[in-house]
């Protein structure tokens, strides 16, 4: 038996007082004295007006590159800073290709396998490491947070040198660290791009910079979060403890918790922001002569492309026939799966 309203009578100092409790969410109720109870209505309105976490906008939304698709990425801007050094210009900027002529005696087709939907893993990780390198090299402050300090939370049992926060790491050292994590955890290239997005979102929200003293733990936290959110097969914290032998699960849990809090639990990455970071990484690679090598078209890849093309043509043919439109084509483009063909018999 369910009771929506329960009434209890209490005798206090010789007087009877009624106490009513309601379980149904009515907007307006009256108490024993006839006064209107506004609590239910206010509670209902507060729940109805509560925004979903994905709908909440940061105060600096118009200037945050990890959220706004039209704001320039931080790493690309910092890579343009000369900082007293003259960087090499891209080959495409100093060579006039109009005077060059390339000829080939064979019909070999070269393809760039790195696309926005399926980036090349090795090249993407190398570009992300280069972006982190420019973040450290051209940083604008030395502000740090305790959880990311490698002196307070070392990743290995080896003694951390006293000048660990002075010398900036080279690009190859950053690439080796990131590549080790990606290869051991079997992460994808998309995860590398999302890692960079989370990293720059942390810089914007927490107002911190990547320095020689904290870059490893910041990158580790970004990779940990990106692998859990965007990878099909998420990596557990204990798995990273097997990669980094001297780190504890409790330390990984605390790193993940504080990283999420600094991001204000905003782990959403729009497709437009992802595409912007991908193409900015390609621009960074071109500016620093990190080429995306094109590979010759193999027989297996050609057959796959031909099969995909034939499936698309059959789909278009089926749509034309379904809509009653006539489409002229050769018999080579007609398959038995889309068009019901009848054999014509000639009787003499």
Automatic annotation (TrEMBL):
* Span of domain Cyclin-like: 176-261
Q: Which UniProt keywords apply?
A: Cyclin
Annotated GO MF terms = protein kinase binding
Question: Out of the domains of life, which is the source?
Answer: Eukaryota
- Entry's family note: Belongs to the cyclin family. Cyclin Y subfamily.
The protein's name in its UniProt record: Cyclin-like domain-containing protein
Q: To which species is this protein native?
A: Aphis gossypii
């Amino acid at each position: 038996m369910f009771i929506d309203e329960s009434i209890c009578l209490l005798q206090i100092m010789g007087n009877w007082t009624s106490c009513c409790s309601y379980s149904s969410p009515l907007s307006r109720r009256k108490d024993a004295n006839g006064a209107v109870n506004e609590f239910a209505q206010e509670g209902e309105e507060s729940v109805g007006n509560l925004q979903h976490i994905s709908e909440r906008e940061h105060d600096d939304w118009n200037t945050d590159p990890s959220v706004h698709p039209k704001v320039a990425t931080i790493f690309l801007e910092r890579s343009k800073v000369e900082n007293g050094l003259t960087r090499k210009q891209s080959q495409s900027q100093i060579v006039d290709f109009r005077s060059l002529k390339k000829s080939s005696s064979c019909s070999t087709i070269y393809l760039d396998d790195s696309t926005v939907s399926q980036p090349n893993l090795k090249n993407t990780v190398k570009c992300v490491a280069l972006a982190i390198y420019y973040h450290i090299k051209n940083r604008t402050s030395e502000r740090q947070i305790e959880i990311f300090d490698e002196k307070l939370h070392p990743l290995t049992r080896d003694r951390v040198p006293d000048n660990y926060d002075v010398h900036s790491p080279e690009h190859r050292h950053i690439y080796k660290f990131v590549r080790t994590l990606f290869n051991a955890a079997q992460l994808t290239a998309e995860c590398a791009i999302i890692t960079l997005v989370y990293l720059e979102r942390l810089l914007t929200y927490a107002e911190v910079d990547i320095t020689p003293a904290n870059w490893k733990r910041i990158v580790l936290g970004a990779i940990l979060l990106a692998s859990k959110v965007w990878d099909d097969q998420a990596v557990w914290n204990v798995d990273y403890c097997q990669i980094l032998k001297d780190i504890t699960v409790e330390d990984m849990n605390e790193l993940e918790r504080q990283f999420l809090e600094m991001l204000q639990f905003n782990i959403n990455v729009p497709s437009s922001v992802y595409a912007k970071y991908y193409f900015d990484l390609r621009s960074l690679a071109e500016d620093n002569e990190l080429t995306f090598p094109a590979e010759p078209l193999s027989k297996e890849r050609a057959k796959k492309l031909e099969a995909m093309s034939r499936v698309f043509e059959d789909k278009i043919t089926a749509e034309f026939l379904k809509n009653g439109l006539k489409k002229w084509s050769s018999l080579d483009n007609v398959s038995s799966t889309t068009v019901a063909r009848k054999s014509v018999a000639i009787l003499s």
